[in-house]
Structure prediction request, 125 residues.
Amino acid sequence: MSRAHKYPTISFRISPRERVEIEAKILASGMSKKDYFVRSCIYNRVCVVGRKELIYQLVEKLKIMQTNIREVTEQFEQAKVTLSAEGLQDMRNDCLDMLKAILWMLDGARYLWQGEEKSPDSGNC
Prediction:
């Protein structure tokens, strides 16, 4: 059996101070580092800082999704579906993941259009 991992690795650089703070939170959580990072990435709020351009990038992603969904809808209407069941499931998962991420980011960017100067959820945002 090879030593290759089934799933890809995600890595990033942090300052020594950030590392101490993160490790303290991991210790307090009682979780493994992997579980802590996964849960933090999936379930924590995101503070979107300062640029409405981010929203426009998300809109462009939505336009691409709209085109893909329109094409599949037309195939269904014509009973000429060229997408396999697995391909359709992959497309569904991709769209669902992107929509969840966009909703998450929009929730974090709410302060941009609600007239607040900074995110109410964080003192440093």
